[in-house]
Amino acid sequence: MMRLFVGIPIPADIAEDLYPIARAIRGLEAQTPENMHLTLKFIGNVDDRHVAGTIDDALMAIGFDGFDLKVAGLGMFGTDKKARILWAAVQNQPLLGQLAQRVESALLACEDISEQLEQRKFAPHITLGRNRSAHRAVVEQAVVDHADVTSRVFHVDKFCLYQSISTNDGPVYQVMAEYGAGEGKAGHTQMENAGFEAAFADIDFSKGPEI
Fold first, then answer.
1. Which of 101, 83, 91 is nearest to 29 (CA)?
2. pTM of the model
3. What pLDDT, in 10s, does the model give residues 63-116?
4. Are 5 and 164 in contact (CB under 8 A)?
5. DSSP letter at 123?
């Protein structure tokens, strides 16, 4: 079984600059720089190689124009009593919302997974940390202290299909396929063109999530 989602990778230098913000908060589990991404759509568990291939076909058909993004401030998700996620925001970019909508529409057209997809408004963010024991007020203060955090402008010319792999040191997000800007299939690369089936060749779908 695999846990999949679709997202945009964050450039390494920007991720490295963002990492210390969450790292400095006691009780917050900081997202490692190599795991940082902007989620376009969470898919969830997939237990069949054929279904994974169907997802790939759907994403491969998406055409989109590249666009620029820039980090702009922090925010958090949670309840009145507890902060749950500390995240970095990005400047408004209509083409980002358009891409997220196309990804969602493509996945909803996949009958094998359409019913498991969450129906929620797209809220672009880069997760910096997940709260384990930090007080809400501490996380709130971090949002205020870093209200002017920003980054260089970076160009988005691809999105990826990720697998979330559980390890003793936390999840690792592995890129399974990349989809470049352009007219759908023309911009598609599958694990260095080795073929999507090859990307899943070592996964035993009968044993549950990899550890």
1. 83
2. 0.87
3. 999 999 999 999 999 999 999 999 999 999 999 999 999 999 999 999 989 889
4. yes
5. -
pLDDT, position 208? 40
> In a 3-state reduction of DSSP, which class is residue 54?
helix
Q: How far is residue 196's CA from residue 123's CA, in Å, rounded to a whole number?
A: 29
Q: How many CB atoms lie within 10 A of CB 204?
A: 8
CA–CA gap between residue 169 and residue 51 (Å, rounded): 29
For position 42, what pLDDT does the model report?
Answer: 96
14 residue type, one letter: I
Interatomic CA distance for residues 125 and 75, integer angstroms: 9
Burial of residue 162 (number of CB atoms within 10 Å: 0-12, 13-18, 19+): buried
Neighbours of 194 (CB within 10 A): 11
- CA gap 55, 150 in Å, rounded: 34
Query: Which among 173, 123, 167 has a CA at the least distance from the CA of 9?
Result: 173
Contacts of 92 (CB under 8 A, 6+ apart): none
pLDDT over 70 percentage in the chain: 86
Other Cβ atoms less than 10 A from the Cβ of 105: the count is 12
Placement of tokens 């949670």 in the chain: 78
Residue 172 and residue 31 in contact, taking contact as beta carbons nearer than 8 Å: no
Mean pLDDT within 6-22: 98
